[in-house]
Amino acid sequence: MAFLFIILSFSGASQITMESGTDTFVEKTSQLYQDYDHLFLNIFYTQSMVVLVENGDVTDPELLKAVDRLERLSSSIEGVVETSSMASVVKETNFQTSGRYRIPDDPNQIDHLLEIAGPQQLMPDETHTIIFVKAAGDTNENALREILREVEFAAEFADFPPEYKVIVTGDPAFNVAMEDEMNASMGPLLMLSGILMIIVLYLVFRHVRWRLLPLAIVFLGIIYTFGVMGYVRIPMSMVSMSAFPILVGLGIDYAIQFHNRIEEELDKGESESEAVIETVKHTGPAVFIALIITSLGFVSLFTSSVPMIQDFGKLLLIGIFMCFLASLFVGVTVIYGLDTLGKKNRIFRKLASIKPSISIRKVKDKEIRTGNEIEGKPNGDSLERLIEKTTMATIKHPGIVLFLAISLCLAGFYADSQVPIQTDMKTFVPTDMPALVDWNHMADVLGGGVFLNLIIKVDDAADPEVLQWMDEFSEREVDARSDIYGADSIVPIVKQMNGGTIPDNRNEVQAIYDQLPEDVRNRYIYSNSMLLLNLDIGNAWEGLGIKGMEELVKIVRTDVMWMPPPPDVSVTITGDTVTFTEVISALTTGRVAMTMLGLIMVFGGLVVIYRDWLKAFTPVITMLMVIGWAGGVMYIMGIEYTPMTATLGALILGVGSEYAVLMMERYFEEKEKGHSPVEAMREASKKIGKAIITSGLTTLFGFSALIASPFSMNSNFGMVTVIDVALALLATFIVFPPVLVYLDSWRDRRMGIEVPELKYIDH
Length: 763
Hints:
It is a single chain. The protein has 763 residues and is of the alpha+beta class. Helices cover 66% and strands 7% of the residues. The protein contains 29 helices and 9 strands. The strands form 2 sheets. Strands 5, 6, 7, 8 and 9 form a 5-stranded antiparallel sheet that branches. Strands 2-3-1-4 form a 4-stranded antiparallel sheet, with helices on both faces. Helix 10 packs antiparallel against helix 24. The two termini are 50 Å apart. The C terminus is likely disordered.
């Protein structure tokens, strides 16, 4: 069955798609997306491939002829809706002045034509020129990739003079390069995660046989996860790619817990069948409860309004369930088979070496069955003793432990409120990625280029009253708002063609519209019912930050209310800037609500499962401490909140509560055997402590692979998560034992049950 599921999983994995577009950030049913997609993206927005030519005189006739060749080649590419360059400007100006639609051979004549045409964005200075190759705003990723490839070929075939440097860049080129980098980094991250886990399993999990088996089991669960991911159409994004090292770290917990318990039962002398029954009977429910609680922590991710965070939550839920199934059915079955085969081999070797007079019955004793003598397993080691002593010390001094834990938690929550938020998405990718270097160079040459896009819905796009309002509103915004540097619309073009004023009647305005090239008209007007006004805010992201950007958008909305357009005219503020401002705000500012919801769900889940307030309260209060500590760690390390680190609260709940639940399950199992609370905790820490430490260290090492990610967002997330997992382990052995023992002892006394004084803990 497992082999069959592997085949099905490979089939499903082949259906996984890569996504990095707006719909990974914004819910398609939201008003924000409707405005952005329907009004802006599909009507006015175009995706521009930018060809930047530099390192020489860009008015050279030979260069302009090469630019013209590139533009003609690019305009014939399927999916390209518009091209523009200085070559076409020179040809059109030459046609208007001389009737010849060509590029002159005389440099002086070219200079004269450029003077007539006036300043152009297509030629920022004398050593740079730009060719824009535009596709429709709603062009899908695969089509954009093909267009970009064709533009790169066209740049080669255009035969530019050798002294000039030609760079193909722009947002589509950057997005394609980012997707390629994401794909390329996935394999190495998983491989590194596996190598690190091999090291920790080999060093820490050596008290069992087949110590590397849990790693094979968890990778089987990852294969199943890939398959389900493809079948249920969960796309691969910048965030979801980080789920797999996390799943390796989480999923291996289940394999280790089952492996540790079945080995413990075999050490007692149980038969293989009995060992399996005891393992499934005791560890199965405990791990399944931990799985449910982990899932409830992850469910809070679904409250995010950002689709890629919701997909991240879905992937984590599917992944831990697949890893649980692989551990329970495949992992336990493999150990059962290996032990059965190993026992037969040991008996055969033993029979071959003993005298015939020795009773066969003596051969079948506990040592031969379990192989302890052959394997040389010790009854205890330094790690077990350290865990036991640490647990007992915290129980002995609960006041000091809880005071320090609560104080650090409160300080951490305060520090968390001071952690800054990173809003620039381009800082999340490798700083030396060539596509990013080219994009930044383009931005330096062209300047800002960040806009607030105002869609103006009208009954008549040629209404002079509407154009007059647009002109006055633009002038006011530029004059009154220091962060608005300019305005771009059809109005300046109309004024230029009408002697510097807006015509008094619509027929004159319409006559001007009719004279405009179609590409210019379509840039600002749609179907006589919509007009576009762009407010240039320069590089406002860096100067204002997320809060400042939100405030700027609110100010412009308020200005529209105080200076309203003519009757029956409405204004919608949208575009990339508005959309991503709200998305980043939703990602980061909603983290507190997400974490609190996770805490409530975990507590509610524990109450439903156990119907016992104590068993519900102790794991949650322990993880609340860790969440507080985590905020302090981020502040001290200077790590900013990003779409990934904003999910840390849910992840801490999911990971940390598992350790606490497993420890609590074993504690009450030992208590049912007649142990006092203190002795039950001592036995629980001895018997399951090493398995939890092993699980925690393998999880920690699995997460640490993310630190090597070329994406800074994932790298910082990996670093913080490693520290948080370490804090969760620390809390499980330092905070959780005194809380549980103290509260359980207090409840026993209230119920009239005699509880030994804590002074006997060293017994």
